[in-house]
């Protein structure tokens, strides 16, 4: 991304024109009076007539009522019937136009290249005109439903704004007339949106309105206003209800403005938000990680509240509330995994098998087993026994005095517990007091993980004490306080019943928040002393706790939104790269209109709605309320790419680390909706809290892109600076050193967690790959590696890892460590193959689809990225011959010389060689008949040692079409001493016990040696390595499997196993060259043998584009190596991945800032359709982390490369 400066247009010219056509349509509910092109007058007249039709029918009913020709009810019914007939007529015309247009389309006359906004009108009732004005409904059910609803809405709307009713409310004819006229504007807007043409709403939650729910949004809000007025009319006079009706009639006039500004949510968002708010603040639950879980939990929790109201006994209510509250606060998702093993349960949590943490089999809480059930059952029985006994003996006490009453000692205990838990939690993080001051007790410097763990040991003890107090002492103290409350005697009041249902639930659901709420209620009572607070005391303890919890939540939201507001406002001027030409004007306006800005912030906090900074400028609006998750889709959607595997690999270890951080409290209060950011090297991890319950927490982990853009780099650099200031300051004395200089940033560092991740090191190989001395050594290392692999292949075949025949493929050696083989090797005996340091076997793929897909070896154009496959001669031939199925889609076969050509992506080698005038121009001719000079051997060899048969090679490997004289000339290149040494070491593994005589006989078997000499030298010639390697480009091509054509290449390619072994041997030899250039030469054969064993056991040596690289990362291979070529710099690079336990720095983000930016992103993309990749609102912002926040949004608006499903972490 190219940063374009602060004065880039907020909307480009096309989008500006589009926006100013769409926005008036939204304001008016659907009429399109601004088209952008010339249209006949009747188009506008028809829309105006349809817009005013409800007013006309309502006016008829109102006039007849005012003339006392009809009663109010009959007049409203007449208006509704007229509107129903008109709506039916509009739908009939829309259906007629759709059928006519469909017939025309079948004739093929319309031009599909014409813009859909351009309509050629022929007359006022032509199908084109009718479809433009009233597009119609997609579903027949909606045609009927919306038509009926239009009539009902018009009838009740007429009743709602009768002049007589308005005059009775306001006692003024003038006010009544103004309200009457403007109210009908609101009704006309809603009716047009419902029945004629639905406008695009600024409050858009779903990317697509699949089921046509949007037309129902505006009528729904009108129905709410009408319902309140109906209750006021038909109920006994209530002054508060009368006042509410008067206020709502005035607010009714401003509904079009609220719809235009997007303050009122659409139906789906309103339903989810409403259920979430009631579940959390009314029933004591938690926001849920999915819509289905939210719906089910809301239904069950509501049923519990109803049952509590119906239970006649106070003791029964206490016991039932405690039991249901405890059970509903547990992680109920584990019930389905009760009969499964721990690994199966953990896999269901969305973590791959390769990332399973080592603690899993014995760690408490990851799976609902017998141990967990026993602990939970014990806690529940103790809580119920405690509550029952205390309520029975002290629940009927007549005094509520905090000193002399039975609740007094428990109240002081709760206050002490609160301060202890808060203090012990506060010292766990790197900052104190909301991120303002550095924690002097936090370890200074983080050189490595072990040192950090040792320095942090004291804090671990404090965390264990806090966990014990918070989870096993505090809930029982709060239950004791509630069980002895006098207000339990008045449970048959709805408010008291709901309040105590919530109180007994939140004790378990969120113990820390419940403790804070209870302490505040206690302090209020202590402050009041013996004086009664009638309005407060009559509410009951349960309702008091409910109000305090709601107040704390709204106050915390207000402070977070206010900090976000100040950040946006101040940085729009202080940051030069964010300072637009209008910045000064906006700052002055915000300063002069600060009461309005404060009112907007307050309203958004009261509604629990995001504060929307328009285009991320200091222009603040109230976004529509929505669930804490912010997005309607399921959790876990992402835009995957090859780099996603690094986040997938670390997911298991990250789960372990987060679980530890959660239990210790080092990340602070874990309220649902909290966001955290983790940073390690080039990786960014975005963590969002979805649910919170007793002993568990549900999170979503997202991985951001690794290929950093300029905007990404700017913000990543600031993130590094923020973390360095917190974790890597050598001295922490003095105010300037102890104060958080980045307090205004959206990111506040919390702690560092140890995660098992890959450390990525990339080196330029200049001086290594182009050194003549190294190139001469490469040939000898290649022969030694090839001999070692051939002998190891024989041992594996003997032990049963390979099967007879050449159909068995070794492509898994190069391409992947497949899960099928991992499953097979688990059943093998541990002593299957050991050569002192435990020689590891190759993991082989059995499916034929993986055989020799040479495309996996292409790595030419991108240093570490995938490349599109190229068509070669093998592919062209394979496609032309149906029976040819040995080659798969991929890059070229070995021997093809590929370059850009006139044939698009087809390599030049794919073209058949030209043969003009009968002359054979091309490759040398090969005589397919008998050649007396080609070495022919019997498939049965006379081996002198019985054990030599184990090391015999397949007959097809001995048939290289090479002259014996050529092999004889290369005989000095065969390392006989290394062969005997390796044969002796492998011979011991085959014999199972040390036998000096047998080992000596093996080494002296000349026939066996000559067999390996021939095969090894034939492979050497076939890959063109008979002379020393001369150029880095040749080495790179050979490493990638793009072997230039040689005389024996066809023979080598025909044997897939041998070809893969040869390629692997060359890659091993290059890795030996790399290591020896860096660490020095090998001093002994033993060292070389152990090094090759290590390569086989602990390394994956290949290309990043191969599937084997992907599988090795997921299986957590300790090391990976790849060779790359940077075409822009003309250099060759080596990439080494090392699996290590590294400290990942984690910080808390301003959750309200994230929600506000996501709300703007939703408005900007879904309504304004501003998808410009260089738009202002996606440019780098070092304080708001704007670019990173946009990336972390759910697709299609954001683009995280990895997103986990909801992960449930135990916190006990």
TrEMBL record:
Q: Which UniProt keywords apply?
A: Membrane, Transmembrane, Transmembrane helix
Pecanex C-terminal domain segment(s): 1032-1205
Q: Provide the Gene Ontology terms for cellular component.
A: membrane
Residues making up the signal peptide according to the UniProt record: none
Query: Where are the membrane-spanning stretches?
Result: 49-69, 75-98, 139-161, 173-195, 247-273, 317-339, 373-394, 414-438, 459-482, 593-622
Give the record's family classification.
Belongs to the pecanex family.
Organism classification, top ranks?
A: Eukaryota, Metazoa, Chordata, Craniata, Vertebrata
Q: How does it sit in the membrane?
A: Multi-pass membrane protein
Note the InterPro entries from the entry. Answer: Pecanex, Pecanex_C
Q: What is its main location?
A: membrane
Name of a matching Pfam family: Pecanex_C
Gene name, Swiss-Prot/TrEMBL: pcnxl4
Q: What subcellular compartments does it reside in?
A: Membrane
Q: This chain belongs to which protein, by name?
A: Pecanex-like protein
Which superkingdom is the protein from? Eukaryota
Source organism per UniProt = Austrofundulus limnaeus (Annual killifish)
